[in-house]
Here is the input.
Amino acid sequence: MLWNIVLKEVREMLNLTTVGTIIAVTAIFASMGGLVSMTKGETTKKPVIAVLNLEPPDARLAQTVVTALNASCEVIYLGADDREGLRRLRAHARGAALIEIPEGFDARLRSGRQGRLGVTWLMRGAGALDTISSAVLERHFLSVNRAVSRELITLRFPDAATSPPAARATPPGTAAPTPPAGGAPPAADTPNADEDGPRDPADVLVDPIARIENTFFKDKLIPMLSPAKISQLLASQSITVPIIMMIILMLGGSVVVSSMGLEKENKTLETLLTLPVSRRTLVLGKLLGSAIVGILMAGIFAVGLRFYLQNFEAPAESLAVLGLDLGVGDYFLVIVSLLASLMFGLAFALLLGVLARDYKSAQMLTYAILVLAMFPMMIVMLKDFDTVPTSLQIILFIIPFSHPMMAMRQLALENAGFVLWGILYSFLAAGLLTAAVVRVFRAEVLVTGILRFSRRPPDAEN
Amino acid sequence: MTLLQVLDVHKVFHKTHAVRGVSFEIRPHEIFGLVGPNGAGKTTTLRMIATLLRPSSGVIRFEGRDTAADPDGFRPHISYLPEDAGVYKNLTGRQYLDFIARFFADREEPAVIAARGVEMTGLGERLSNRVSGYSKGMTRKLVIARALMVRPQLAILDEPTSGLDVISAMAVRERIREATSHGSVLLSSHNLLEVETLCDRVAFMFAGAVIDCGTPVELRERHGKRTLEEVFLHLIRDGHRPEGR
Ligand SMILES: Nc1ncnc2c1ncn2[C@@H]1O[C@H](COP(=O)(O)OP(=O)(O)OP(=O)(O)O)[C@@H](O)[C@H]1O
Ligand SMILES: [Mg+2]
Here is the structure.
């Protein structure tokens, strides 16, 4: 008895649409895994840097830094020309940062103050995976720190170095047991009158280096912030629009799909199709109706979402400081972009609804749309459009749902052209798809369904 | 003298050859009946006439024009009642009639059309209830009224009285008779008594073809039987195969 019912359920639910949807979702996650493993290479590869050494060659502590960096990073430029260093760095696909050892670095350290390293980051995207190389480099600074610290201690306490070196992470060349050259004044003699505030000389020994960080986000110079901070500030931009997009799509899409499914299930479709209305009116009516319902429901949803998103949101003024805030015109473009891809999504949903046999399979098909929207959403959260491989860029551009998701970031970077092209493309795709749906409405698949076997078994009533 | 002409129409669904060369014609202001066993191809034929399906071959002409060439232009002249027509469940009967009437606003005041529909249903008070609470027969009455209230030139009714009680069926037959003052009616039915009394001409369908066609009197005389039911049995049981038309 039980198995009879179980078997019936399985047979009912396990059809081409459900299996197909699952396969599609799996494929997306698999390709996402590919993307992640691609960037995994970046965590194991040495970060690519340029080093600007403005100290003379005999500045030992500066040399220590260079040696430590050389050991952990791929240094593609070492010299004193900052333009050249930056140029080489930009030319390299994985170029992460320009590290500047300023004049007087050595002397400052010897005088018991923190040495300063200038770090100019090249940030190519704000996705989670985009900032990996900077996170890796961040880790290597620890070993630089340690190397300098070790060197300082050796300078101060020459005896310490005679005992067997406990250097594990320290590059070998730096642990030279040379006596202090010219006996630097003890740190206690010169209390730090720095803008950093007074520092205990012991602290300087343990933590000898201060970093002054600037970031080039694409072509924009953002002073005093590291990529990690910037991507944190941008998180709200990268999360809000995709979430709203998904909600509108989910609601509007399921309205369309289920309206088609219900027309079939309730047997109202045939009557509708023989009424004196053009197919185009019928299709547009369905699209517009569901768009209104979708937007209305999403509006209600958005109110709740605001409370949730407040946690992610960067205060608008901090984005303004970065020069990454959006103007009214920018928001308008984002909304237009949203509408364009919503239109595409609804037309797509209608097409799927037409192909579905009944309400249940229509509901299943809604997931197909979500899958299509999930793909760009996940990529956009991980990486920026500019930093994904070309093949993925093409796929992203083709899927209209990606455009509103990317719009905010692109507009923040004053890349309105990209957004406008995206809008144009989305409208075009939506128009073409709508025209295709109208064609399908003229065809008889609408009545017969796409499946091969008879829609109504001929046993009927009698 | 013909309103609708069906000429050697075939319909093939993948492997099923559902309709195999059907021809007949409908004259103005007549009631034409299609009868035949289950699966004979009646519904498929009616759907092709209603432009829901395209004939695989053959033509259907309305007032001399090929309907497949301009379905949008042809549709305003017809009203199609599917055999299992449904209604939007959230509407009341009244709202449904209003909804349909608005599609015909260029022809007549929607309120007038809807009022006629209300009258035709005979559902009275119940029209202000939601359709989801209707019985099968009540829904059927509603959709029949919907099909006839717009006074089409050609009403295509697939088993209009199926599921109706005796009295309601009589009332519907009366509505169908009245409809001939504005146009023609093409209907299918399994009730041969009904067909005999209602239809001016009848076509017998079997296995996708019309095996005989004529007025009830002609058909009875041709086969020497007293009722259409006996003619039907004779045609189907005695192995009458479709040959010449
Ligand atoms: N959409 C379809 N796809 C495939 N075969 C179909 C389809 N619609 C009808 N058929 C087949 O065409 C044949 C004729 O069906 P049709 O519905 O026209 O019969 P009918 O005369 O109306 O029968 P009934 O008296 O049971 O209503 C049947 O064999 C049926 O299986
Ligand atoms: Mg039928």
Q: What stands out?
A: The two ends of chain B are 20 Å apart (CA to CA). The longest strand of chain B covers residues 16-26.
